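Repro case for the chain-ordering regression, as requested:
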Amino acid sequence: AQKITQTQPGMFVQEKEAVTLDCTYDTSDPSYGLFWYKQPSSGEMIFLIYQGSYDQQNATEGRYSLNFQKARKSANLVISASQLGDSAMYFCAMREGGGSNYKLTFGKGTLLTVNP
Amino acid sequence: GAGVSQSPRYKVAKRGQDVALRCDPISGHVSLFWYQQALGQGPEFLTYFQNEAQLDKSGLPSDRFFAERPEGSVSTLKIQRTQQEDSAVYLCASSNGQFLDGELFFGEGSRLTVL
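-- result from build under test --
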């Protein structure tokens, strides 16, 4: 089974509007971390936001927020007030606890296009 | 520079050639990772170093892949007798060793094309 599932290959949003990028995950480990990364055309993976499995509140970082629904095993990224520079690939990723907690498992990504 | 630096950015190799990809992590970062990103996919873990020790190489696709970090800073990923299926972007990342909530800093990657 896929550990990270991103069901939206591509998304379009108008500039200044909000957009939600979906991510579901699969783990039996009670301790895990969820990450979102942005990959522009330059290729670099840029860290956006982190949510720990024991965190009581949803993570927020500026215009980014993570809608964490633990029972549904979902960790959707919400980008508010989209900007043209937000156009990029977005990857959801997970680190599980335990002995291999250094490994990130990534989804296949969602290509976001922000239209003017 | 302040970030993770990778070279070359682009490499074209003929099938059967050996290639070497270099990663210069952020100064002071003890942990270094290599990931492989095939076209249209997310990155996949290849190997992990803590200082000069290679603690996990379970993601290396075959024995043609070899990574080293002899002095605990710069790392080299070597691919021997390249095959077409090796074509991908190879991403290097480093961190300060704090894992579960620690940020990984990625380089821009080395794009390998095997003809």
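Ordering looks correct now. Residues 9 and 110 of chain B are 4 Å apart (CA to CA).
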